[in-house]
Amino acid sequence: MLPIKIVGTGVYAPGEPIDNIELKQLANIEFDHEKTEAKLGIYKRHIAHLRGISETTADFATKAAENAIVDAGVSPSDIGLFIVATDTPEFITPATSILVQGRIQKGETWSSTFDVSASCASFAIALDNAVRIMATDESIEYAVVIGVYNMPAFIRPGDAFGYTIFADGAGAFVLKRVKDEKSGYITGQLLTDGTQWDYVGVYAGGSRNPITSKVIKEEKWGLLNLQRLPGDRNVRLWPMVVDKLVSKANQKVEEVDHFIFTQINRSVITKVMAELNQPESKTNFVMDRYGYTGSGCLPMAFHHAVKEGKVKRGHKVVMVASGAGLAVGSNMFVY
User: Fold this and answer.
1) To pair with 160 at 20 to 30 A between CA atoms, which of 4, 153, 197, 253?
2) For residue range 203-250, what is the model confidence (pLDDT) as tens digits?
């Protein structure tokens, strides 16, 4: 077990929550809100631009990180590593993590920053990277890892699919190197299939498809759902990834105290817990209050699990996140 411990968590979501009825009015869309609530478990979400709030990815990430730093009881100057996990960055370049470092530390410091962009698996992958960097670089005592999502900024007007599911939000962990502690990072497990790149994503704005008047006219900018995702994808993937992770760690599934999954579909999580033969009481849900916050949903769900007493010190936790691409990340640690 690597001697890296979570010592603080924080979340941020912009503005007052928007329920499904108000969403229809604000976004001028129609959808079956009863189905959304019953199947996906989404009742509310936060979307900055629908509330007239001029905040974007770097704002969400900074505020979540600041809340986590306060929760950890450390000084911003103590942070030696900033990682932002997102596929909805503030800019193509510079990295969003650089902006966050500047806002939190106010200038030049001996700190490191980088972004991880692996769709909605970004936070799990960023956490795994952060731990391994800290374990090999003793000059870094504290790190901040932030998962943040601003997909609503890329949703085209009238897109009921996008507005129904995707929302703004961020969650952050403060990590600390520790000695002789019972808490620590056990291992991670990643899975990738890049042949699935053309299912859903934001395909304009990069070097392949720069934003032009033609792209805008043809409505090929923003979030595009090019192919229908297999309905059973996560039901198949997540148990397989959990089994691989616990086997790698020489653990057993029943030894895990709490599971946190990508918060896109409550019914899928329920099916996965049944597939793992684990009680639903070993997981938690935040999509009811936040909608789907992509790379932000794992740390946001974990934050609430801790604050609500579902995860306690000494508990063994497994997190699994999957996203378009295909990218899957998972982590096992002792809180």
Assistant:
1) 197
2) 999 999 999 999 999 999 999 999 888 878 899 999 999 999 999 999
